[in-house]
Structure formats: C-alpha cells, structure tokens
Design a protein that fits this description.
alpha+beta, Trna Endonuclease, Chain: A, domain 1, 2 domains, globular, 194 residues
C-alpha cells in the first residue's frame, strides 16, 4: 500500500522533532500551519523557526519548499527517510541561493536538488549535513564564527577559518568540551583529514 504524501511528511516531522529533543532543544509546535513553520526552537539567543521537508522515494534526492521569505532565524531541515540518521540543517538564505524556482499548481516553489554524493550542490552544502550546531548559537563567539562561515560555502570557508591541522585540532577540542553537536564535530574531524 502506497503512503500518502501527508503521511510521509508527518513521519519526517516527528523524526526530526524527536532528534531535536534528543539534542536538548526546547521544541514548540504551532497549532496551525502558518507560513510552513513546523516547529519553533528556543535557544540562548532567541527563537528559530523550522520547516521540515521529507522525502521517501525518488530517483533524485530533491526537496521543494513553497515560496518563503529568507531570514536569519528561519531554517529548513531536509530529511530523507531512506537515510534515517541524515539531516540537512540549512539556513533559509542558503537554501534559497542553492535552489531554483519552479512553477507548481499552487504557485511557485524553491526546489533544491542534492543529487549524488559528488554533485556540486551536495559538496557546497556539506557543512550543513547533520549540523545542528548552528541552531544553538549559544555564545556570541560561536554566533560570529558561524555567520562568517555561512557567508562562504562549505569547505572553503572552513579551510580559511582553520588554515592548518593545529587550528582544526584546537577547535575540535573546544567543540567537544563545550558539547557542540555531533554533526559539527564530525565536520571538524573530516576537515582534519584534509
């Protein structure tokens, strides 16, 4: 029996919300779907609005978000049910820049095609894979550092921020001590190998 699109979407929402709760976020659920906001999380520096996009079966990994206004406190979490432990936590401004506009029956939407592991889009968004660190932004230093990194794309920005192995090791040690997200720690560990 084929699942309805709404069922797949709700399954993804619940899994992502469960993961956010597991990571220690205070999660608030709106009673009415206004503007596509699936949940709101509370952080030390304010509230973040989250839209969750889920896909289950497709030949190409793509996500589609109906028209929205990109803003600093709005994130889109893309989740593929076929890879249950992979979350793409993408700031709405980055999502908008990496997607293309398509016409739908309900107006226009922004379509993000991740493609395969070696696609240009996937490589440029690697920083956002399993990276909920950016949602926390618990300290002023972390916020400034993250915003500088987000202005550039993925690995290039991180390599500029941490130009040598010692810089990466020091940041990795700090990230573990301050209990940054496992996604952010994994990104640093991957960076250390390059």
């Amino acid at each position: 029996m084929l699942k309805a699109t709404q069922t797949t979407g709700k399954e993804g929402e619940l899994k992502v919300i469960g993961e956010l709760l597991r990571q220690g976020f205070d999660v608030y659920l709106p009673l009415v779907d206004i503007g596509g906001i699936d949940c709101v999380i509370k952080t030390n520096v304010g509230y973040k609005e989250i839209q969750i996009k889920t896909m289950e079966s497709a030949k190409i990994i793509l996500f589609q978000v109906r028209e929205f206004i990109p803003r600093d406190n709005f994130y889109i979490i893309c989740y593929n049910l076929k890879k249950p432990n992979t979350f793409w936590v993408i700031p709405s401004k980055i999502y908008r820049n990496e997607s293309r506009i398509v016409n739908t029956k309900r107006g226009y939407a922004f379509r993000l095609v991740l493609g395969d592991e070696n696609s240009k889009t996937r490589r440029s968004l690697h920083f956002y894979k399993d990276n909920s660190f950016q949602l926390k932004e618990g300290t002023i230093e972390a916020t400034k550092e993250l915003k500088q990194t987000i202005k550039k794309s993925g690995w290039r920005a991180l390599k500029e921020l941490y130009p040598n192995v010692n810089a990466v090791k020091n940041k990795l040690k700090e990230a573990k001590e301050k209990k940054y997200s496992q996604g952010y720690i994994k990104v640093l560990e991957d960076l250390k190998r390059y």
